[in-house]
Amino acid sequence: MKIIIVNCLEFFLVLSVMFLLGSFLSHIVMRRVSLEKIFARLEQKNNWLGNAIAAVIGALTPFCVCTSIPVFTAMVQMGIKTNVAISFLFASPLINFSSTILIWFLFGVKFAVYYLAMALIFSIVAGVIVRYLRWDDAVNLAPAPEGKKEALAAATFAWQLFKNLLAPLLIGAVIAGFIHNYVPVKLITAVNGYPVWLLIFLATLIGFPIYANIMVLAPVCFMLVNKGMNPGAVMAFLMAGAGISFPTAIVLQRILKPRLFFYYLGYTFAAYYIIGYIFNFI
After folding, report:
1. pLDDT band per the 50, 70, 90 thresholds, residue 53
2. Count H helices, E strands: the chain?
3. Digit-coded pLDDT (tens) for 121-172
4. What total of structural domains would you count in the chain?
5. Pairwise CA distance, residues 233 & 222, whole Å
6. Gap between the Cα atoms of 112 and 104, Å rounded
7. I need a labelling partner for 240 at 20 to 30 A (CA). Which of 29, 69, 112, 250 fits?
8. 214, part of any domain
């Protein structure tokens, strides 16, 4: 029990620091770079271009899924359309330069190239669907504070966001702490004899509650492949474990309106499953 409490506190402290720091820095960057104007111009040229650039920016940022949320909120509050920010939110925890190199080294070029390409494609499509559904207003976020000095405005933004999401962060940390004391590897290897379609579904389902950085999950997934686990199931598990988690879901539930929240959860689950399943035919 003591170990569980310690793990919960560790998760809460890590999540809190990431949220405060991520919120502060992202607010400053958004104000300096004027990304909302850049994306507005891109959208005038091509409806998909803003989503594609947002996905690429997400791929270039070395964030885990919980660090991506403050950036996502800053993007929306600064005037960037929700559908564009969703493409960033989908891509950011799944792709970064370090993880791509690690995946390439562990699993080979075919696995890495397919993983990267599909993550980018599904990130773009995630936002495009939101735009066609006209759900850009489906967020519970007030505009960013104006009329203050840059550092003060960023600090105010970070603190307000942290206060509003304190309860979800704490609940998410407790859940993550309990899950951390179980061994998901044993769960996923136990279902290895199931049909491929069911195996990949279960791998995605088991990966969903886990809160882990992709750099941590990649070596674990490499071990699963070496033990004979279906590579498509491992890919689905890797993406689900890095791309979504209980803390993330609980926090997003406060930020996104119900229709967008359930869309995002359903889309991510379906995307991870489809990406893993198709890999078996390549």
Report:
1. confident
2. 15, 0
3. 999 999 999 999 999 989 987 665 555 555 665 566 566 656 655 665 565 5
4. 1
5. 12
6. 5
7. 29
8. yes
